[in-house]
TrEMBL record, chains A, B, C, D:
Residues 3-63 form the HTH tetR-type domain. It comes from Thermoflavimicrobium dichotomicum. GO terms for biological process: negative regulation of DNA-templated transcription. InterPro entries: Homeodomain-like_sf (IPR009057), HTH-type_TetR-like_transc_reg (IPR050109), HTH_TetR (IPR001647), KstR2_TetR_C (IPR041490), Tet_transcr_reg_TetR-rel_C_sf (IPR036271). The lineage of its organism: Bacteria, Bacillati, Bacillota, Bacilli, Bacillales. PANTHER family: HTH-TYPE TRANSCRIPTIONAL REGULATOR BETI, HTH-TYPE TRANSCRIPTIONAL REGULATOR RUTR. Signal peptide: none annotated. The keyword Transcription applies. This is DNA-binding transcriptional regulator, AcrR family.
DNA sequence: CATGAATGAGAATTCATTCAT
DNA sequence: AATGAATGAATTCTCATTCAT
C-alpha cells in the first residue's frame, strides 16, 4: 500500500492543479492543502513535474481501467461502444477536475505533455480496437477507424467539458445532463443526422 | 489600418504563445521574435493577458468569419454542414498554432479564459443554428441541437489536433490527411457507424 | 513673459507632484494633465529633476516674496514677527500642495533636495533676521536666534500641515482654522505656556 | 523572541530606507546590506511596503515608549513637558535616520502614509495630554491644546532635523548642539520671546 | 521521515528619456 | 515648436528547489 502521506499529497495536488493548471499551481498551495510541509512533497516527489505526471498518469490510468471494465461486460462491439460512451461520460462527470486537465495540459512541447499524449493515445487505441472488432465482425462500417476513434474521443470529451462549464455550480443539473449527453453521442454514432 | 508594429507583435506573439502556452511564454521572447524592445509591446498592450486576449479574440474571430463565409455559399442546411466541417478542418490545419491554443487555453478560471469560452460558445451557436435550420426544414433529425453542436465541434477539433501531433514535422502528409479527416467527420454526421 | 506652454506645464506639474511626490509622479501624467505631449515637456525642461527643481524654486520663491512683502509693511520686529506668522500660515493654506512637497521633499541626499534645503535656509534666515533685529532693538530676548528661527518655521509648518490632513476635504473649516493656528503660534511666541 | 533574520533585515532596511527614502530604496540593496538573499526578505515580509510599515511602526513605537518612560518619571505637567522635550530631542539625535523618514514619509496619499500619520497623531496626543493635565491643574494656560501639541512637535522635530543637515558629518558638534536645541524649545515654551 | 527557512534565477511591468517626423 | 512611438535599464515580486535540523 502506498505511503499514507503520498495519498494525501495526491488528493491535494489534483485539487490545486485542476484549479489553476500546471503552471499557475504552486507547491506551497499543494503543501498547504495537504497539510504537510513543502519539504515533505519533495521528499516523496522529485519535482513539480514528477508529481504532476504521476498524478495525470494515475488519472488517465483510472479512466482506461474504468472504460475497460465497462467494455468487458459486453462481447458485442456495438454494445461495447455503448458501454464505452457511458463510461467516458460518467468518468468525466465524476472527475471534472481531471477532465479539465486532460484537455488543457495535453497539448504542448514539454516532455510531460508528450508522455501525457502517449497515454491518451492508449485510450484512443482502446476505442479504435472496438471499432476494428466491429468492422471485423461486420457490425460496423468505418473507413478510418483510428481517426474515427479520435473523433469520438473528442466529441464525448468536449461535450462533457462544455457542459461542466455551462453548468458550473449547478451540481444537480449535471446528473440530469448525463443522459442528454449520452443520447447525443449515441445519436451521432448510431444514427445519421439526416432525416431518413 | 492597424499600426504596423502591432501587427508585427501579433505575428510574433502567436508563434511564441503557441510554442509554449500562455504561462510559459515570455514577453522577452515575443519582443525578440518581433524584433522590437519589450517596452514597445507594453506601449501597445497593457499586459501579457491583454496581448493574449487580443490575439485569441482575433484568432477565433477569423475562425468564425471563415466558417460563416463558407456556410453562406450554401442555402441547404446539409450542404452548410458539409461546408462548416470543411472550413473547420481547413482552418485548423492552416492555423495549427491557434488550434492548439484554442483547446489548451480555453479551460480555467481566469477571466481571460472565461472571455475566451464565450467566443467559442459563439462559434458553437453558429453550428447549432445550422442544425436548428435543418430540423426546421425537416432535413435533419436531432434531439439536442446544442449538445450536438458542441459534440461536432469537439469531434472535428480533437481529430485535427490529434493528427497535428501525430504528424508533427510531416507537412505534406497533413494535406492528404485533410480528406481523411473530412470523410471521418462526414461519416460520423451523415451515416450510422452501424452496417445497415 | 514666459512661454505659454511652460506655464501650463508648471500648473500641471504642481498638481501631479503634490499628488504623488517626486518619485511616484509620472511624466506621462504631467503631460496628460497639461494637455501636451510628453515630448513637449522635454522640449522645455531637460529632465524630470529640472522641472521639479524649477517648480519648487518658484514655489519657495513665492513664499519668500510673500513673507517679505508682509514683513515690509511693518518696521517693529514684533509686528514683523506677527506679520510673518500670518503670512506663513496663509501661504501654506493657499498652497497646500506646495506645503506638502516642501516638507516631504526637503530631506534626502539628492542634489535637488540639497538645493531645496538651501532655499528653505534662505527663508529661515529671513525669520532669523527679524529675531536679530528684535534683539538688537531690545524688543526680543532670544539666546539662539538661528535655532529659534528654525523652531518657529517647524512649529508653523507642521501645525498647518497637520491641520491640512486632519481637515482633508473640509475646505470651509480650514479657513476658520487659520485663526486658531495663528493664535496658537502667537501664544507660543509671545506668552509663556506657564500660568503667570 | 523575534526571528534573528528579521532583525538583521530590519537593521539593514532602516539604513537603506533612510539613505534614499521609500521610493529610491532598492530591495536589492536592503538584501545586500542585510547579507541575505532577496527572497529571504520576501519570505518574512509580504512586500516592500509592509517591510517599510513594520519598520516605521516599530520606530515610532520606540519614540512613544521612550517619551512615555521619560514623562512617567515626573508627576508635575511642567516637568513632564521638560522631560518630553528632552526625550524628543535625544531620540531624534540618536535615531537620525528614523527622524528623516518620520518627516519625509508622513505626507502623502498612500495607505502606508496614512497609517503612519495615525501613529504620529498618537504621539501628538501624548503631548496634548500633558498640556491638558497642566491646564487642569492650573499650571499651564493654553487655549488650543491640540494645535499647541502639534506646533511643539513641529518645532522640536524640524529644529533637530535642520541641525542634522547643517552638521552633517560632524558627530561631535551634534552632542553639544543638543543643549542649545533643548534650551531653544524650552525658551519657546516657557518664556515669551518678548523682553519683559 | 518531516520540516520550513533560505535561496536566487527569473519574469512582468514601469517609465524617464530620446528622436525621427 | 511639438509630437508620441519606441526604447531598455531598472525593479519588484514569485516560486521551485534545497538542505540543515
Amino acid at each position: 500500500m502506498r505511503h499514507e502521506k503520498v495519498d494525501i499529497i495526491f488528493q491535494a495536488a489534483v485539487q490545486v492543479f485542476a484549479e489553476s493548471g500546471f503552471d499557475q499551481a504552486k507547491m506551497d498551495d499543494i503543501a498547504q492543502a495537504a497539510g504537510v510541509a513543502k519539504g515533505t512533497i519533495y521528499y516523496h516527489f522529485k519535482s513539480k513535474e514528477e508529481l504532476f505526471s504521476a498524478l495525470m498518469d494515475e488519472g488517465i490510468g483510472n479512466l482506461i481501467d474504468y472504460a475497460k471494465r465497462n467494455i468487458s461486460l459486453h462481447s458485442n462491439p456495438i454494445e461495447q461502444l455503448h458501454a464505452l460512451v457511458h463510461a467516458h461520460i460518467q468518468f468525466f462527470i465524476e472527475n471534472k477536475k481531471l477532465a479539465k486537465l486532460l484537455l488543457s495540459e495535453a497539448f504542448g512541447t514539454k516532455e510531460r505533455q508528450h508522455q501525457f499524449r502517449v497515454r491518451i493515445l492508449e485510450y484512443i487505441r482502446l476505442i479504435e480496437n472496438i471499432l476494428r472488432d466491429g468492422i471485423q465482425s461486420g457490425d460496423l462500417s468505418i473507413v478510418h477507424p483510428h481517426e474515427m476513434a479520435s473523433a469520438i474521443f473528442g466529441a464525448a470529451s468536449i461535450l462533457v467539458l462544455h457542459k461542466i462549464y455551462s453548468l458550473e455550480g449547478q451540481e444537480k443539473e449535471m446528473e440530469e445532463s448525463a443522459n442528454v449527453m449520452e443520447e447525443t453521442v449515441r445519436h451521432l454514432l448510431f444514427n445519421s443526422l439526416m432525416n431518413k
